[in-house]
Amino acid sequence: MQHVIRPVRGDEWEKAKELRIASLHDAAAPIAFLDTAELAEARPDSFWQERTAGAASGRAARQFVAVGPDGVWNGSVTVLVEEIGTTDFLDRAIETTQGHVVGVFVREGLRGTGLAEELFQAGLEWAWSLEEPALERVRLYVHERNERAQAFYRRIGFQDSGVRVPLESDPSAKDLEFVFPRP
């Protein structure tokens, strides 16, 4: 099945919402996302409109989707830009201008087909194209028990940085930071 990998457009919020909620209903969601389906489903349309518009243009974020020949969105990767001197979602200081990959999802029946690699390729190409200032690296967090995702990230070039972040939802568990240095 051929997919078109492309950035979202600002007016595609309904499809972005559907894909996000589908990802949060996935069996891996509890260790893959900080969000829940219940919270996502309760958000107003204005939230999804603003979120999608913000990921469609500008420097702050870009969401890439895999659109099947039937028009169904089958996967997504979002790259957020974290500027030096700001703070991240954990309220920690950002010490280098970097990308942060979030919202990685491919529908179950299409995993292992190369779709995730294509999404990451698009996301990383966009990240490396940014200038003034250029991104020094791209990072992501992966749950310590999500071994399949860890293996995938290593295979495509991410490396475990050694940084561990305790999870608010389960203080006995940690997210691992993986980084991809600028080529």
Automatic annotation (TrEMBL):
Keywords on record: Acyltransferase, Transferase
Domain N-acetyltransferase: 17-183
Enzyme Commission number: 2.3.1.-
Pfam families found in the cross-reference section: Acetyltransf_1
UniProt enzyme class: transferase
Listed GO MF terms: acyltransferase activity
Keyword Transferase appears in the UniProt entry: yes
Keyword Transmembrane: no
InterPro entries referenced in this protein's UniProt entry, alphabetically: Acyl_CoA_acyltransferase, Bact_Acetyltransf, GNAT_dom
Record protein name field: GNAT family N-acetyltransferase
Source organism of this protein record: Streptomyces caledonius
